[in-house]
Design brief:
By secondary structure, the protein is of the alpha+beta class. It is built from seven helices and ten strands. The strands form four sheets. Strands 3-2-5 form a three-stranded antiparallel sheet, with no helix packed on it. The protein has a three-stranded antiparallel sheet with strand order 6-7-8, with helices on one face. Strands 1-4 form a two-stranded antiparallel ribbon.
Amino acid sequence: MAEFKFTEAGKTASPKSGNSGTKVGGIVFAVIIIVIILSVLFNCFTIVQEGFIGVKYQFGRIIQDDLSAGLNFRIPFVEEIEQVDIRDQIYSVTADAYTSDTQSVNDLQLKLNYRYSSSMLSSIIRDTGINNVENKLLVPNVAKIAKDAIGKVKAEDLVQTRSQVQASIQNELTNVLSPYGIIVTAFAIENLDFDPAFEASIQEKVIAAQDALKMENKTREKEEEAKQIVIAAQADADSQVAIAKAEAEAIALIEEQLANSPNYIDYYKLQKWNGVLPQVVSDGVNPFVTITGSQPAQTSTPAYSYTPPTNPAVGNTEE
C-alpha cells in the first residue's frame, strides 16, 4: 500500500513541473518580444546635430539630402541617415613659389576656408565623395592657382599688394571649385619668406619712399605758406587801393561842393572843429590874446609878425 502511494505521488507530481516550465518560457519570450519592439522603435529615429545636415539612404540610394537638425524618422533595416558637416572647413598647405622677377618665396603658408553647398550635397556625394573632397579638389588646385597668381607679380609688389593678390587667388578658386559644390569663404597667405638680402632692400626702399613723402609734404606745406603770404599781400594791396579810391572820391565830392557853394568850406571847418578856442586871434592889425587863469601873462613878443603894407602911391622917406 505504501508503495502504491509513492507511485501515485510521483504520477501526480509530474504535471506540476510541466506547468512551471511553461510559465518561465512564456515570460522569457515576452521579454524578448518587448526588447525587439523597443529596439525597432529606437532605430526608427536618428538625431541630426546642429551644424550638420542629414542625408537619408534607402538601400544605398540617396532619397533625401536636406534633413535638418533634430529628431528624424527612418525605416529600420531599410533606410539609413548619415550626417554631413556643413560648417566651414579649413585646408592648409605649405608650398614654394617664384615671383615674376624670379625671387623665391619659401615655405609659403596657404589657408583656404570652405564649406559644402547644401543644394549640391547629393552631387558632391555621388561625384566626388565627402571624404575625397580634399584629395580630389583642393590638393591639385589651391597650390597651383596660388603659384600662378604669385608668378605674375614682382616680389616688391607682392609685399605691398598682398591683400589684392589674396583676393585674386580667392576669386580664381571660387570659379574653379563652385561647379563641384564647394563654396570658398576665405583665403589667406600667412607667410611670405624672402631672401634676407632682398627683404633688407625692400625695407630700405620703403624707408626712402617714406622720407621722400615727408619731404614732398614739407614742400607742399611751404608752397601753401607762400600762397597764403601772396594772398595776404594781394588782399592788403586791394585794401589800400580801395582806401585810396574812397579818399579820391571824397576829395572829388568836397571840391564839387566848394565849386557849387563857397560857404561849404565854413561848414566843413565847423564839422572838424574840436570846440577849443585859439590862444591868439589876429585880423592882421590888432592881435587878441586870450589869457587863462592857469597860465601867466605873456610878456614876450607874441608869436606873430606884422609888416605894414607898402603904399605904392607914397614915396620912400629915406630918399
